[in-house]
Request: fold
Amino acid sequence: MIGGKLGMEKKKKILFIFILFLILMCLNALSIQISVEKEEILSVDELHITSSNPDILKINNGLFIIEVLPNRGRVIWSVYPVSNTDENFIYFSKDPYILPFMDEITSQYFFELGGSYLSEPWNPRSNQPYPYEEYNVIQSDNEARVILEGMNPTENIRARVELIVRDNDSRISMNVTLQNLSKNTLSISVKEFTVFDLSTGFLTTDFSSLNEKRLDDFDEYKLINAKNLRFFGIKKGKYSLKKILENGYSNHYVQIWGKNWEEQVGGAPAVRLVDERIGITLKPNEKLSFKVLFEYNER
Reply:
């Protein structure tokens, strides 16, 4: 009888441990996971805050992994599915010998490291976004917020970007705030750059002449003025990532290097989307706020 009771207690204890293990596994599967790694990335400026081995933040929300590279001004460095880490939607370069290309939009030479980034804060000397001087990560069980802050010392414009990723949520959102800290009224334009990886897959967009086009469909570099875009992105197999383009933009430009990208100086197997807001006037201490939205899909 005593042996029977001891056996029953042991079974209950094993069952309790098993249930607790299942609960912990479920909580781990549902929660946002964040890690930080350091990696050598090409630096194209000589600022004292630029690191040769910067932090790369990795956020796993159960659907996709998004990487952030604050020290190169990249709000997004890469995005890829949790279930298929080889299918990266965002182009990025780790090549230490990358060459600059002549950017027709700005008429300046540019080192395209890739990623998604803004033209504020911008370093006119290196023609790159300034590194974000500070970043903070606010994490809960179902949400991660990355706060990036940087300064354009030339124009005295302060930039604050809040990147938001939620557990098992298909959206990647950014809340952007620019503030004029100078004593003068400034007239500016703001560009948003996104470099999609087109080495595999095809374009998905409401711009009909580009929809379902692949890299091999373009023999050479093209610059396309794509007006009235509502969305633009890339599809790879059953996975896709697109940028949702709501009201507020003045211009949209698409740059594609094409299948012979290796023969072009600074070329890449990618498509570069440039979304522009023009005619912005900021009085001293005045702020401009807007949102940027990406949407991931798996079907």
Observations:
- The two ends are 58 Å apart (CA to CA).
- Residues 20-30 have pLDDT under 50 and may be disordered.
- The chain is about 10% helix and 45% strand.
- The CA atoms of residues 122 and 129 lie 4 Å apart.
